[in-house]
C-alpha cells in the first residue's frame, strides 16, 4: 500500500523516523548534511520549517527512496519533484530497450526484471522453466517472483535446499522492510514467512568453501545449481526507474551450464 501524497505525517516526524531508521544521531546527521544540530532539532520538533533544498539534502544523506522524498517535500509544503512514469509510456522507450538488451544478452541463462515488491516486469526466455508447473493463480499478473518461488505449489516443491535458500531470501526482504518501512512490503514479508518450510538451518554459518548461497533445484530429473547478481539503474530521477532491479542467474556448476545450453539449443 502506497501512502497518498495528501495523507502524510509532519515533516519533522518523518525526518526523525528516517534518521532513527538509519541509526544516526542528530549530531551525526547534522554533521554529514552540513546543517546545525540546533536547526535539525527544531525541524524535527516542528519549531522550524526546512527549506526545499534542506529537505532534499537531508533525504539524500538519509538515503530516502525517491518515492518517500516526494512525501517529505509535500509534508514540508513543497511540490513533489520526482515523477513516476509507467513503464509502458513512450518516455520509457530507452529504459525498456536497455532492459530487453540485458535480458537477451544473458541468454541462455535466466534473468528477470522486478519492481520494488519483486513483481515481475519482464523476463528472458531462459527464465520460463522457473514458472513451469506452477498453478495459474500464482502466474496471474502481477506475478510476484518471491511468492512463486516460496509457495508450496510453486517453485518450492522443486528447490532442494529450500530451508537454507528460503530463510536467506526472507532475510533479504526483512532488510528491505527495515530500510523502507513500506507497508505493502511488510505485508509481503509476513505472507512469505507464513509459507511452510523449516528455516532452522538457514542462518547457520556457511561452510568454509562456500562463497554464496546457491539456489539448488530439480528440473526434468536433473539437479541444477544457481547463484545470482542484482543490477539497478545508476543515478535514477524517476521513481519507476529507481525501483527496477534485474536479477541475473548464473550456473554454479558445469551440469547446470550444460542443461541450460541444451535447453536453448546452443
UniProtKB/TrEMBL annotation:
<dbReference type="InterPro" id="IPR041413">
    <property type="entry name" value="MLTR_LBD"/>
</dbReference>
<feature type="domain" description="HTH cro/C1-type">
    <location>
        <begin position="15"/>
        <end position="69"/>
    </location>
</feature>
<dbReference type="Pfam" id="PF17765">
    <property type="entry name" value="MLTR_LBD"/>
</dbReference>
<dbReference type="Pfam" id="PF13560">
    <property type="entry name" value="HTH_31"/>
</dbReference>
<dbReference type="InterPro" id="IPR010982">
    <property type="entry name" value="Lambda_DNA-bd_dom_sf"/>
</dbReference>
<dbReference type="InterPro" id="IPR001387">
    <property type="entry name" value="Cro/C1-type_HTH"/>
</dbReference>
<protein>
    <submittedName>
        <fullName>Helix-turn-helix transcriptional regulator</fullName>
    </submittedName>
</protein>
Amino acid at each position: 500500500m502506497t501512502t497518498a501524497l495528501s495523507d502524510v505525517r509532519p515533516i519533522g516526524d518523518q525526518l526523525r523516523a528516517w534518521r532513527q531508521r538509519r541509526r544516526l544521531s542528530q549530531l551525526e546527521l547534522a554533521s554529514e548534511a552540513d546543517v546545525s544540530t540546533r536547526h535539525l532539532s527544531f525541524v524535527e520538533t516542528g519549531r522550524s520549517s526546512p527549506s526545499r533544498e534542506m529537505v532534499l539534502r537531508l533525504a539524500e544523506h538519509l538515503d530516502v527512496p525517491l518515492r518517500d522524498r516526494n512525501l517529505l517535500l509535500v509534508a514540508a509544503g513543497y511540490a513533489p519533484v520526482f515523477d513516476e512514469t509507467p513503464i509502458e509510456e513512450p518516455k520509457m522507450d530507452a529504459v525498456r530497450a536497455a532492459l530487453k538488451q540485458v535480458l537477451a544478452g544473458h541468454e541462455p541463462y535466466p534473468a528477470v526484471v522486478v519492481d520494488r515488491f519483486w513483481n515481475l516486469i519482464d523476463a528472458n526466455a531462459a527464465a520460463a522453466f522457473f514458472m513451469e508447473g506452477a498453478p495459474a493463480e500464482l502466474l496471474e499478473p502481477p506475478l510476484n517472483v518471491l511468492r512463486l518461488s516460496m509457495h508450496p505449489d510453486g517453485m518450492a516443491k522443486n528447490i532442494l535446499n529450500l530451508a537454507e535458500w528460503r530463510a536467506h531470501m526472507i532475510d533479504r526482504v526483512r532488510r528491505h522492510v527495515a530500510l523502507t518501512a513500506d507497508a505493502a512490503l511488510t505485508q509481503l514479508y509476513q505472507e512469505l514467512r507464513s509459507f511452510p518450510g523449516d528455516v532452522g538451518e538457514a542462518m547457520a554459518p556457511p561452510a568454509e568453501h562456500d562463497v554464496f548461497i546457491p539456489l539448488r533445484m530439480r528440473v526434468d530429473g536433473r539437479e541444477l545449481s544457481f547463484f545470482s547478481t542484482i543490477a539497478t539503474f545508476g543515478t535514477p530521477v524517476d521513481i519507476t526507474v529507481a525501483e527496477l532491479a534485474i536479477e541475473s542467474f548464473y550456473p554454479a556448476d558445469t551440469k547446470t551450464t550444460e542443461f541450460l545450453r541444451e535447453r536453448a539449443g546452443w
